[in-house]
UniProtKB/TrEMBL annotation:
InterPro entries for the chain: Kinase-like_dom_sf (IPR011009), Prot_kinase_dom (IPR000719), Ser-Thr/Tyr_kinase_cat_dom (IPR001245), Ser/Thr_kinase_AS (IPR008271)
Highest taxon of the lineage: Eukaryota
Protein name in UniProt: Protein kinase domain-containing protein
Xref: Pfam families: PK_Tyr_Ser-Thr (PF07714)
Source species: Medicago truncatula
Protein kinase domain residues: 1-263
UniProt keyword Nucleotide-binding present: yes
Length: 274
C-alpha cells in the first residue's frame, strides 16, 4: 500500500501529521475508514489522536493526526544516530504500550499490527500507539474472528498465521516481540549466520539454553545494578510467556500490564509471574 506522510500546521499553530493514501483501492479505502471509525470514538493518553480527515466528497484520502515529534520506537532502538534508551525508559515504554492495548481490548478492538514503527514517542518518551487500519472489532460473545493474516511477519502470532483466527492473544504475542526488542536492542527479524530468523525464535532458543547474556543488550547491565539485572530477567520471563504457543498459554494484556507495573515498583520477584 502506497501512502505519503506530511508535516503540517493548523491555523491555531498546532503541528499535525498528515497521512495520504496514494492508491484508491478497496483495501486502502477500508483502512482509511477503519482508522476514522476507531480513532473518532476512542480517546486515550497512549493512543495517537485523530484531528480530522478529508471530505467524503473528495477524491483524496487523507487523515490528520496530532504530530508526535520524537520518532518511533524502532528508530530509537535500531538507528545508530539515536542515543541509547535507558532501562527505565524502556520499561516505561513497555508499560504505556501495554496500557494502550488493555484499553483497546477492553473496548473490543484487536490492533493486529503492533510493532516498533507503530509505537510513536513524544519528547518525554511517552507512548502513542498508531496505525489502526488493520484493526478488528471483537464482539463480547466471541473469542476470535477469522480473517486472512495481515501485519508484519516477524510480529505475527504463529497461531493466527496458521489458522487465520485472530484474538486478543495475537496482540499479546506481538507485544512479547516488542519486549524482546526492548531487552535486546535487536530488530524483530535478524540474521543468524546466513539465515534470517525471527527475534522471538532467537530469544526462545537463548532462554531455553540458559544463554540470557547473548540476548540482553549488555549496555543495559553495564552498571551491574542488581535491581536492573533482576528487572530485565523478570521482563524476559514475561516476554517468554507472551510468545507461547498455543495462545491459551499466554497471559492477557491486563495481566501483562499488572506484572510490568509490579516490576517497576519492585514488588514482583522472578517466580511470582509464573
Amino acid at each position: 500500500m502506497s501512502l505519503y506522510l506530511y508535516l503540517g500546521k493548523l491555523k491555531d499553530g498546532r503541528e499535525v501529521a498528515i497521512k495520504r493514501f496514494h492508491e484508491e483501492t478497496e483495501k486502502t479505502i477500508q483502512q482509511f475508514m477503519k482508522e476514522i471509525e476507531i480513532l473518532s470514538n476512542l480517546h486515550h493518553q497512549n493512543l495517537v489522536s485523530l484531528y480530522g480527515c478529508s471530505s467524503r466528497h473528495s477524491n483524496k484520502y487523507m487523515l490528520v493526526y496530532e504530530y508526535i515529534s520524537n520518532g518511533t520506537l524502532t528508530q530509537h532502538l535500531h538507528e545508530s544516530s539515536c542515543n541509547k534508551l535507558s532501562w527505565l525508559t524502556r520499561l516505561n515504554i513497555a508499560i504505556e504500550t501495554a496500557n494502550a492495548l488493555v484499553f483497546l481490548h477492553d473496548s473490543g478492538i484487536i490492533h493486529r499490527d503492533i510493532k516498533g514503527s507503530n509505537i510513536l514517542l513524544d519528547e518525554n518518551f511517552a507512548v502513542k500507539v498508531a496505525d489502526f487500519g488493520l484493526s478488528r472489532f471483537l464482539p463480547d460473545y466471541v473469542t476470535h474472528v477469522s480473517t486472512l493474516p495481515v501485519g508484519t511477519r516477524a510480529y505475527i502470532d504463529p497461531d493466527y498465521y496458521e489458522t487465520g483466527r485472530v484474538s486478543e492473544k495475537s496482540d499479546v504475542y506481538s507485544f512479547g516481540v516488542i519486549l524482546f526488542e526492548l531487552i535486546s536492542s535487536k530488530p524483530a527479524s535478524l540474521m543468524q549466520g546466513t539465515e534470517r530468523v525471527a527475534l522471538a525464535e532467537f530469544a526462545l532458543s537463548k532462554i531455553l539454553n540458559k544463554e540470557l547474556q547473548l540476548l540482553v543488550d549488555q549496555s543495559l547491565q553495564i552498571s551491574f545494578n542488581k535491581n536492573v539485572v533482576e528487572m530485565i530477567t523478570t521482563v524476559t520471563e514475561l516476554a517468554f510467556q507472551c510468545v507461547q504457543c498455543p495462545k491459551e498459554l499466554r497471559p492477557t494484556m491486563k495481566q501483562v500490564l499488572e506484572t510490568l507495573q509490579g516490576i517497576r515498583k519492585g514488588k514482583w520477584g522472578f517466580s511470582q509471574i509464573t
